[in-house]
Amino acid sequence: MVGNLLDKVVELVKHLDPAHARRWFDDLRLLYLSGGSLGIGCADQDQVLYLQDYCKDAFTRAAQQVTGHLVVVEFLVADKSKPSAACPGVAGPRLHPDYTFESFVVGPSNRLAHAGCLAVSRSPGTVYNPLFLYGPSGLGKTHLLHAVSHQVRQERADLAIGLMSAEEFVSQFIQAIQAGDIAAFQARIRKVDLLVIDDIQFLGESEQSQEEFFHTFNALYNNGKQIVLSADKPPSEIPAVEDRLISRFSWGLVARIDPPTFETRVAILQRKAQLRGLELSDDVAQYLAKHVQANIRELEGALTTVYALAMTEQGPITIELARRALECQLRLAGRSISIADIIAVVSRHFNLSPSDLNGKRRSRSVALPRQICMYLARTLTGHSLEEIGLGLGGRDHTTVMHAYQKIAQACESDPNLKALLEDLTRQITQACQG
Fold first, then answer.
1. For residue range 107-149, what is the model confidence (pLDDT) as tens digits?
2. Number of Cα atoms under 13 Å in the Cβ half of residue 358
């Protein structure tokens, strides 16, 4: 009966949040149900953190619907012999369980970058130091950065890993300045064996942070520690970054990632479907790959749309179903909604200025519209949490995730808010089409 209860919860979660549903959800274990708490056992800490970050709201709603009671969901490592702490080193984004070398599809557009990452993960600090990946957003740079971290942690558990975005590096540095504790920040950052920085181009916005990173780079490099960086441009084209940093970024291997070819897109869709436990025929994969060409993030979005419709209709994934699922997406493919478009419409509706939403005020009259902006940016654009946070006053990705979850949950019980979001979405879409 207990196992059957968890099966029902997992099945409902797949309907509530198809974007984050994964095949390994079927391997979760129900540890206990008592005192209003539902304990769900996971294989490792990466799964725990993934569920906490992306799926807690969906699991909570599903558990409450299945049990008919107010239930608090808790995620734990089922095997207590496994370490429950996050990876050692600098606090930063969690390792995404999907982003491993095994799940990365190699093709002509990313072969050099993949080979460089694989070599670095097998022998950190001795080859390709630093390793610099660059290319447009949504092509797999972050996937490879996490894959390197996963592999190093698996093979060298004794090594300390620092994985963060450039925005987080700057934010932690600023906090250290404000707290008068720069020495502790430097000791923490410079003790890692592997430093991985995503979106290093955002370092160019702060001269003092560039100075600090320059010395951090030198300290790690001189001690034989591995440095892996990513950006949207090659080192020489990153604006506002000092020449001495650009020179150091180019010391090792600089590898470009291009948009995937048709064949690679088909393979990516098949791999993404496997992660979700879906059966995707070659015909459907080829249909999606033909119509979605921009980047991997849009491919995954298309697969999510198809998956959601298949779950709703309880039928197989066919080309006809894929065509219907993507009809709206294909019709609007010519336009792209930006965070600025969303801010403009929301600020106008609430009689605020865009600077109010980007500012530091936390009163409810500003905080709620700001959270609505974050929710709409998450649902209407392909931007990452970090990019949305940057677009709304430089806020942290966890703030964006909290806002998204809060608004999504509120919609379940507040029809007025749901109607408002639908109206704002209509206004934003019409503005972009016009």
1. 999 999 999 999 999 999 998 999 999 998 889 999 999 999 9
2. 14
226-231/72-77 β-pairing: unpaired
Contact 147, 104 (CB under 8 A): yes
SS3 149: helix
The highest-level CATH class for domain 262-331 is mainly alpha
Taking residues 41-55, what's their average pLDDT? 87
Largest Cα–Cα distance of the chain, in whole Å? Answer: 65
Phi, psi of 242 (to 5 degrees): -65, 150
Q: Are 227 and 130 in contact (CB under 8 A)?
A: yes
Separation of CA 424 from chain center: 25
CATH class assigned to 2-77: alpha beta
Phi-psi region of 428 (alpha: psi -120 to 50; beta: other; left: phi over 0): alpha
CB contact burial 29-53 (16+ within 10 A = b; e otherwise)? ebbebeeeebbbbbbbbbbbbbbeb
User: For 339-433, which CATH class?
Assistant: mainly alpha
Token digits of residue 427: 């206004």
Q: Residue 219: how many CB atoms within 10 A of its CB?
A: 14
Peptide bond into 130 cis (omega under 30): yes
Cα distances (angstroms) measured from residue 210 to each of 56, 206, 227, 236, 268: 37, 6, 16, 16, 36
Instruction: Give pTM, 2 decimals.
Output: 0.71
pLDDT higher than threshold 90 for residue 239: no
Q: Nearest to residue 89, comparing CAs of 189, 209, 200?
A: 189
Exposure string over 283-296, b if 16+ CB within 10 A, otherwise e: ebbbbbbeebeebb
Q: Does domain 111-256 have CATH number 3.40.920.10?
A: no
- Each domain of the chain, given as residue ranges in start order, spans 2-77, 111-256, 262-331, 339-433
Pairwise CA distance, residues 430 & 403, whole Å? 24
